[in-house]
Amino acid sequence: MVMKLNVSIPEDVVRDMDQAAREAGTTRSAFLTQAVKHYLQEKEEERLHQRRLRAAEAIDRIREEFGPWDGTAEVLKWREKH
User: Fold this and answer.
1) Which residue among 1, 19, 22, 70 is least packed, with the fewest CB closer than 10 Å?
2) CB-based burial, 26-60: b 16+ in 10 Å, e otherwise
3) pTM of this prediction?
4) Average pLDDT, whole number, for the chain?
5) Tens-digit pLDDT profile for residues 1-32
């Protein structure tokens, strides 16, 4: 479904946007759609990046609390038991 919107954009921005749309060989609507999609994708990537940073910080806190851990040794111990 396509929705029509009324927005207020400064005239100089509209001129630049129209020029960029012409250079891209597209319409104003398609240009704005692509720009919004690009913006939303960047925001999602930033959100995921921040989640990864928080996860890494949590892992670092766990390492500090429990000390070093040898994953290979733990796997070998588990194999010996099973």
Assistant:
1) 1
2) eeeeebbeeeeeeeeeeeeeeeeeeeeeeeeeeee
3) 0.71
4) 95
5) 999 999 999 999 999 999 999 999 999 999 99
Query: How far is it, in rounded angstroms, from Cα 48 to Cα 19?
Result: 33
Q: 16: phi > 0 → left, psi -120 to 50 → alpha, else beta; which? A: alpha
DSSP-derived letter for residue 35 is H
Residue whose token pair is 């500090």: 64
Measured CA to CA, the distance from residue 28 to residue 21 in angstroms comes to 6
- The H or E element spanning position 54 is helix 28-66
Q: Is the pLDDT of residue 40 over 90?
A: yes
